[in-house]
Design a protein that fits this description.
The structure holds two protein chains of two kinds. Chain A contains nine helices and no strands. By secondary structure, chain A is mainly alpha-helical. Chain B is mostly helical. Chain B contains 22 helices and no strands. The N and C termini of chain B lie far apart (85 Å). Helices cover 75% and strands 0% of the residues of chain B. In chain B, α5 runs parallel beside α7 and α13 packs antiparallel against α14. The chains are: A mainly alpha, B mainly alpha. At the A-B interface, α1, α2, α3, α4 and α5 of A face α2, α3, α4, α9 and α13 of B.
Chain lengths: 185, 457
């Protein structure tokens, strides 16, 4: 007997009867859910939290949800996108931290810092003007509020704009220019 | 790193932000130098893993079986929680009954201090009751219950609720319910504050349920509509529509489209209002939600009449009449009679319109629904103006003055009525005056801050 079966039997004995519609429901939708996780390339170990949160929310909101299958698929799709957005944010932050550290020269000899500056300028040069200005100032040591003032952004929105620019910089790092694609390094 | 190139695994972990800081720095540095091979590998993985917005992988056969073990484990855990939630629901009813035996101050004390009441289902129930109270125009009770729900939600923990999402959902819905109750009570600054608090949970971290978010945005849109900030109301409702589309909730989508139609109606855009109502009716199931369906049809009949398409309004009303009769409650039947009067008026059947408006006005006065009585009185005045019956118009104005002087009509609305009565007395109450006062009363209903500035006389 599985733990779930056992616990249901116990709860039937010592608790008021609970209609567990979840098992049947999940059996029906399982293939579609698995396909969805696979489509979004969510590693199986990371689906645990995502699925559990969504199912719990469904149980809590059961009375308000008219079409549970559509709700669950829509919710999970959103959570998969958030999962990747979260990972991407971590990546942008890491790239940012790495650049700040390299620019500070704390861990690199002078020659390397100068090479980094050159490579960074090359990468920044391929970004849109607004991002180029913002990141150039950021890597020259401007703090967020100073950046907002210098570039005319609202202080409340500077973090969002900076993240967008970091995303653009990271994408730049992962883009092979057409000439290099043909010839390699 | 091999030969100064990061390994494939390092690149994968770099993309997931999972490398130690020092290695993240090295890989970033390497990519800055423009290594085409590593950029190509990382770029390919970037596209595959989650992709950009819609970048989902199509070919996923072979990886599906890996999910089964996780699904089984999660099902076991959630099944246990499901039983617990069912018990919490049953307990919540009793706790709610117990709470309502006490005065409000004691209720707040109990909910803050007694562990027994820390039940998410109780919070849900309090919100439901607050909404019911608002429907029955018991505004003080509605506000008190919403406040109680906030205090209770603040005592709940993520663990107790199962997740941060459920807890945040309760908190933001409780604040939004309070905001809505204040809005309905004409207290816009208080409503504004409550929605500000609700919005703090709609942050970028995504720790909220989409359905909860849609409810909050929907209620906030009603406040913006009342404040006549129509663009903001439409933006909010666009987000609500997008959420319901994403979650495949047709019925709720129909309701949201109906909400959008109300905003267009208030803004005077009758064509968009009618388009949205037609779209809304395609999504609302008349069997499952007969009242919402009827309300959308009712609004469409009025919009058709207001846009001068009385015969279309007449046909639609003919087909909708059975739904009003099926509902059968007095207010629904009065609304039917009222809209019958409007359509008759539009069709040039002034006598039928007069009889209908009189019946409805008398019923509203009897039920002490003063505001509605005032609005329907102006519809009646419109009939008299069309027929040039100035003596009847004067008499109607005197009757209105006698009834509404001693009643609960907000100051600005009463001022507008006085303006109409004065014009009628001086035989200057033409169609434009009646229309202006009537439109003002409709707009000022949800917006007590609106000022009446007559232009038609």
């Amino acid at each position: 007997m599985s733990i779930a079966q056992y616990s249901r039997q116990m709860s039937a004995l010592d608790q008021p009867q609970v209609d567990s519609y979840l098992e049947d429901f999940l059996k029906r939708v399982r293939p579609r859910l698995k396909y969805l996780f696979a489509r979004y390339s969510i590693p199986s170990q990371d689906t645990e939290d995502i699925l559990q949160q969504a199912l719990l929310a469904l149980v809590y909101q059961r009375h308000a949800v008219r079409d549970p299958e559509a709700w669950l698929l829509g919710t999970l799709r959103n959570k998969c996108l958030l999962y990747w957005r979260d990972h991407r944010r971590k990546l942008y932050e890491s790239v940012d931290a790495a650049v700040l550290e390299l620019m500070a020269g704390a861990v690199s000899p002078a020659q390397e810092t100068s090479d980094v500056q050159r490579d960074l300028e090359n990468a920044l040069g391929r970004l849109p003007e607004r991002c180029r200005s913002l990141l150039s100032l950021r890597y020259r040591g401007y703090q967020p509020l100073e950046l907002a003032e210098a570039l005319g952004y609202k202080p409340a929105s500077i973090s969002k704009v900076t993240n967008r620019c970091l995303a653009a910089l990271t994408r730049q790092l992962l883009t092979v220019s057409p000439s290099k694609k043909k010839t390699g390094t | 790193m091999t030969d100064d190139h990061p390994t494939r695994e390092s690149l994968e972990r770099f993309l997931l932000g999972q490398l130690p800081a020092s290695e993240m720095r090295l890989v970033s540095r390497h990519l800055f130098t423009g290594c085409a091979e590593c950029r190509r590998i990382a770029g390919d993985d970037w596209e595959t893993e989650g992709g950009e917005a819609a970048g989902a992988r199509e070919d996923c056969t072979g990886v599906l079986d890996a999910y089964d073990a996780v699904f089984d484990k999660v099902l076991q855990r959630v099944s246990l929680k499901e039983a617990l939630i069912a018990r919490e629901r049953m307990a919540a009813r009793e706790l709610c009954e117990e709470l309502t035996q006490h005065p409000t101050s004691r209720q707040l004390l109990l909910v803050s201090n007694s562990v027994r009441f820390r039940n998410p289902a109780l919070c849900d129930l309090l919100l439901e009751r607050s909404q019911e109270a608002a429907f029955q125009a018991e505004m003080t009770r509605s506000i008190d219950l919403a406040r109680l729900a906030i205090v209770l939600a603040e005592t709940l923990t993520e663990e107790g609720c199962g997740s941060a999402e459920v807890r945040n959902g309760l908190l933001m819905r409780a604040w939004a319910q309070l905001g809505n109750a204040h809005r309905l009570n004409g207290e816009h600054p208080e409503a504004e504050q409550a929605f500000e608090a609700a919005n703090t949970f709609l942050g970028e971290d995504g720790q909220f349920g989409l359905l909860d978010a849609a409810r909050v945005l929907d209620l906030e849109a009603s406040l913006r509509r009342d404040q006549r900030r129509f663009d903001e109301a439409m933006d909010l409702l666009d987000r609500v529509v997008a959420i319901y589309q994403q979650l495949g909730q047709r019925s709720l989508l129909g309701r949201a489209l109906k909400q959008k139609s109300l905003v267009c109606g208030e803004a005077g855009d009758l064509e968009s209002e009618m388009d949205l109502l037609k779209q809304s009716l395609e999504h609302i199931d008349p069997v499952e939600e007969p009242r919402t369906f009827l309300s959308a049809r009712h609004n469409l009949v009025i919009a058709l009449y207001q846009s001068g398409r009385a015969s279309e309004a007449f046909t639609l009303l003919f087909h909708t009449r059975p739904l009003y009769l099926k509902m059968g409650d007095r207010m629904t039947l009065l609304r039917l009679r009222w809209v019958e009067g409007m359509v008759a008026c539009g069709m040039g059947r002034a006598e039928q319109a007069e009889v209908a408006f009189r019946e409805v006005r008398d019923a509203f006065v009897e039920l002490q629904l003063d505001y509605d009585a005032a609005v329907v009185s102006l519809d009646l005045a419109g009939v008299y103006v069309l027929q040039g019956r100035s003596a009847d118009l004067r008499r109607l104005a005197e009757e209105m003055l006698a009834v509404f002087t001693s009643r609960n009509i907000p100051r600005e609305a009463f001022g507008a009525l006085l303006f109409f009565c004065e014009a009628a007395k001086l035989e200057k109450a033409e169609a434009a005056v009646v229309h202006e006062v009537s439109e003002f009363l409709k707009r000022a209903r949800g917006n007590p801050d609106l000022r009446f500035t007559p232009t038609s006389w």
